[in-house]
## 1
Amino acid sequence: MNILHELQSRFAAALADLTDNPEPFAAMVRPSQDGKFGDFQANCAMPMAKQNGVNPRELALKICERLNVSDLVEPPEVAGPGFINLQLKDDFLLAEVQRSFSDERLGVARVNTPKDIVLDFSSPNVAKPMHVGHLRSSVIGDALQRTLKFLGHRVISDNHTGDWGTQFGMIIYGYKNFVDSAAYEKDPVAELARLYRLVNSLSEYHSAVSGLPGLEERLKAAKSELLFNEGNADPADKKAKKALKKQRSEVQSLESKIEGQRAKIASVESDPELKALADAHPGIARSARDETARLHAGDPENLRLWKEFVPECVESLNRVYERLDVHFDKTLGESAYQPLLSDVVADLKAKGLAKESDGAICVFIPGNAAPFIVQKADGAFTYATTDLATVQFRVREFDANSMLYVVDARQSEHFKLLFETVRLWLGVEVELVHVSFGTVMGDDRKPFKTRSGDTVGLESLLDEAVSKAREIVASNDDSKTDEDGRPTPELDESTRDEISQIVGIGGIKYADLHHNRESDYVFDWDKMLAKTGDTATYMQYAYARIQGIFRRGEVDVEALRQHDTPILIEEPAERSLVLKLLRFEEALDAMASEYRPNILTQYLFELAGELTTFYDRCPVLKAEEERVRTSRLKLIDFAGRVIRQGLDLLGIQVCDRM
RNA sequence: GCGCCCGUAGCUCAGCUGGAUAGAGCAGCGGACUUCUAAUCCGCAGGUCAGGGGUUCGAAUCCCUUCGGGCGUACCA
């Protein structure tokens, strides 16, 4: 049961006579911030009183009279200007905890009206190896997938991979000109990745060489303009000051751009072999684009290569997903929608939504300066076209009434235009949500960009996390001693390996999930792999301690669950733990309604905190009375199951020993 | 130029449609291991919620404005 929702609906009923629109006021019931104000509080009396011009405290008392909550809470108290404080009855908590304890779903109900959701996440380019930037979408998307499914929604997760873009032209060009056949035989994906990097760096070299003089020109002009303005600026003129500042940052950005271009040039020219290749392929960028165009036009040779490459690339992605324990119901890449695109554009034109502008076919959405380009001047379709076709396909094929896109916030404008265009074009009732997330920044506070050459590959990140976890697991286990202080490690090598996987990968996922997804955050190895504080490890450890108690006490957990001794609430720490356990559904509902995994991580962290405090205050195996011992065993069993289930919904595993 | 986002403790971040004294983690300081696993617990210290104005009984939260930062902005995805 979602206790919060239950209280809100009781309030809605009580408020029906007092206002025309009780819902928003009922929603003002919320968990108390401070235990001294009870478990929940209702804040609706003040704004309602204002609206009706009456005394808020009197209104609060009136609301309390009409309120039918005596089965749930102690008599409500009115405090301060008109807060209504609610304290749950212990009898209610006991009945509820008993019911939830015996429930396989831990008391969490399924939603009444399941949605048909297509959840679009991860969506990497298949031709490039995944790097840390792909982590957020994968991890957030997977947590949403697991949670929404658990709550009873019909979810189709779809990895909308980039398998049809310009990067394939580069690979095809690279393959035709530079392939090392032996290397390709041995490890095709590694060789394709090398070819991609090679073609990319050669074309960047040429573009840097041709672009550099222009940039230097611009820098020179900007500098002299700045110098002139600095000399003439009136310090009192704010506008001029602002303009100056802008010019300075312009100069700075030009300088760093030039530096980058020079670095690209130097990296090629310092290597005679590369330089020779660059000289031999002056038009490489254009040629690569031509290969893409030929692929799209159905050229048999390029199509054959593409068909050969894609499965290899997808296979290599799947290895990473396997390690991350992230799985998709569908992997429908962009290529799947190609046959539909010309019809999409024709239909948009026929409905008067798309028109030609500067040679391109565009949809113009009022209020937006940028057009939504569905066909380029050269006739090629864009990802806008593909995304439109994809929406239509998902509505038709999957009966989707909700589509969630777990994509970087930088694409918000694209989604705004996409969603508006869909509404005008299809006119169907479908919920479209850009579940956006912030940029991962480097420690220089600038967006974490993958510089060619030294990208932090996702796989090496995972390796690093696991090996760090391995050290900690080993040192912790080695420090275990018996009563006489003799070392008693209990984990063999392969168990240590397993635990390191679970702890390492879990740590990485948690580091990402516990941020509010919309914030940018600073990528930090140490924090990502930290094992203390608000981390996955903290909860995994709490879980392992519970299992340790069962082992030490030789508790038959199955029998315990059937045992008819009731759960008791006698200590404050017990009540506090019980209440937290009963609010699991509330946390899941909140997470699902806003698509924010950090709501669940926060809940689990608080739960684990309640649990470890409970350990300190309340002996379990050493409890003096049998009924207390059994009750506490049941409590920690319940807590362990909630932690395991909660972590599982985040895609994080647990282990019995650590 | 236009648009979107952000600015909260030394650091990294929470803070739900406005609610009672702004919260965590890390780092710092002081306690707790003859232990149900110290990957822990308990306590202390640390904040003009970027600045200013407004709306309100009440603002970190809503509106305006200044400053500082990030991102996007017509044929890459």
## 2
Amino acid sequence: MTTKNPEIIVECPKEYLLKLLTGKWKPCIFRYATQGPVRFGQISRLLPEATKQGLTNALRELESANIVERRVIQEKPLHVEYHLTELGIEFIPIFNAIEALHMLPTRKQADQK
Amino acid sequence: MTTKNPEIIVECPKEYLLKLLTGKWKPCIFRYATQGPVRFGQISRLLPEATKQGLTNALRELESANIVERRVIQEKPLHVEYHLTELGIEFIPIFNAIEALHMLPTRKQADQK
DNA sequence: TCAATTAGTCAAAAAATTATGACTACCAAG
DNA sequence: CTTGGTAGTCATAATTTTTTGACTAATTGA
């Protein structure tokens, strides 16, 4: 039984991969970024419950995973834009698959914890 | 500016959803389960680094999210099988999208943390 | 009766994630 | 020269997740 049953052989790098997109704010930030470059303050206004620190952490993680790129824009009130990278763009189908689910809960449902 | 700029409107129930499939062991367990019913000890052997408690937690979470179903099999050495539910099956495309990524890291890479 | 296999439970500790609140630095307008 | 907007940092605290190590309980075989 121990030697006979070959058992299922599947590696599990999904853990690592999913980590890139999970956490309290990363999924949201990622999705915003798929719609075009986003700015720090903009994200902050979209996610009023998030603290600056929380957003900074999330953005830095996405950045170091090479999913988003941080660009300082040398304009009037000097701001920062976050863009999806090529790699980031490759992640979009994952989110599309998530959104294709029937049972996608509403924000309210998700909050009822 | 506050009233003018419509900003991007996207809800973010993805956080909730991704949570169902994340954590240290849930992604792996889920993927094993997509290949057919899995038993507790089998998972434990596939993921030798995981503790019983860790696996139990993960399984209970998947169960209470209605992603897997726990079935006690009344046979010789009385065991337990975990099956994907209908809802669980709906999650498969998400994993397929993940696995379709070019940069899927190997276990080794993922472990180099 | 002792040991092994099945599949866990439990309380506590450790580790990882997230939040808090204060502070920084640049630039522009009043 | 003070306020407001940009985008953060920092040390610490609270919370959540995961691990540790001991223990349970039913059944089977020696």
